[in-house]
Request: fold
Amino acid sequence: MNEEYAVNVRGLTVAYDSRAVLSDVDIDIKRGKITAIMGPNGAGKTTLLKAMLKLIPKSCGSVIWNEVDGRPPVIGYVPQSESVDWDFPATVWDVVTMGCYKRLGWIKRPKKEDRELSLQMLKKMGMEKCADRQINCLSGGQQQRAFIARALVQQADIYFMDEPFKGVDVATEKTIVELFRELKKEGKTVVAVHHDLSTAADYFDEAVLINRRVIMQGNVKSALTQENLSLTYRGTTGGEP
Amino acid sequence: MNIFELLCDHTVLVVVFGSALLGMVSGLLGTFSVLRRQSLLGDGVSHAALPGVAAAFLLTGTKDSGTLLLGALLSGLTAAGLIFSSVKKSKVKFDAALATVMSSFFGLGTVLLTCAQKLPNATQAGLHSFIYGQASSMLERDALVTIICGGAILAVVLLLWKEIKVFVFDRDFALQLGIPCGRINLILSFLTVLGVIIGIQTVGVVLMSAMLIAPAAAARQWCDKLWLMAALSALFGGISGAAGAFAGALAPGIPTGPSIVIAASALAVFSLLFAPKRGVLYRIYLRHKAMKKEESYGCGN
Reply:
């Protein structure tokens, strides 16, 4: 479409068992900006991310990925850390190198440059000392760092992160915020599900408020008004439409 | 017979070798079953293989094990397909679908088996050995089938190692990487069914699932790398297979299948208790140490 947006979502509807979780969602994600997806529990934030990434089927609508330097964009993904069983027999290194599996062909093992890249990303997340550590003895913050390092190894143009700040310590939160700034400087696009209203304006450029449909999107300061927030979060305890 | 004579006996060697190989194959496959929390899939498939065996005999009248196992494979695959599709298409949970399919197939198998017993040549066919297994009847041909199937299973696992690893650990991430998770799931399930089917003649449909789960559960206790767990699990399975087959040969009358399962279970229990870091005893020791520390702080005050 154009240079301004990394991805355009048009009329996206996702339904589980004929019950619409997201209906008629139009979103434009600005290229090179840090965008927060915000909304109450059950608003469909994770569903939105997954539907955009084609991890779950959509009922209708389209997701248009705009080219980067004349090629389709590479996408990096950080799932919610509690979506996996951390008692899986693997080390941090095993998890992080999974980020380069797409570039490798069948049977091929990570090459020297893949290993160097993995180490570099571990260092970036302050995790190089944990490389040989079992993933079942990581703290919540370390789990998140490992997952983010894995996404960085994907060397993406757009990063999707599902609640990167959930259950992390202060130091990890700071590391992630610094990473956001660094990625932005490199011209990358970041989309993250975020919960904390008090930090949103500091950490993000743009915000998309959703509750089964888009309530508001735009510059984070103009979007997070009292009026928009009450529209987004009203009557949400039961998650009823 | 003493042990030395046993070691020179060709028939015994075939049985021991075949059982060990079988144990290795199921140990390898069990690693993924256990990590995917689908430990009982093997149980369902093995029970569901029984009507296939009986139907193959009723239809062809042959007791050729190849034909019977083909029947078992078809009915095992049908059961696995039914379990997965009912989970996907309806709101039935995996365990409920599995229990229903497993018991109804096993019931059907028992009925068909009773019908088959009434046929004149049935008593010789040894159909009943499929229930509790009979390793001592293993022929070179059966061992060859195990070698071929086992080799194919190992080759596929090695070929798809990276894909399987990321799929089992983090399905969403695997999908996002562009790994065809549906196909990997199908392949893994097919391999599991195949591994179970080649084992039912030796270990029996009732106990076969232990051959998948026990070695893998034991292996998980000792290591923290997926490839190590798979290798150890195959090793434990192989040891159990050989040990059980030996016991059966050493003391005629001792059923081989159950002996194999007992050996595998003993390894699992030992590992659960004594493995460093994850073992029960080590954890008790840790708790004890922590309590002592607290007490000594108390004294200091």
The domain at 3-300 of chain B is CATH 1.10.3470.10 (ABC transporter involved in vitamin B12 uptake, BtuC). Residues 274 and 281 of chain B are 6 Å apart (CA to CA). Chain B has a mean pLDDT of 89. The radius of gyration of chain B is 21 Å.
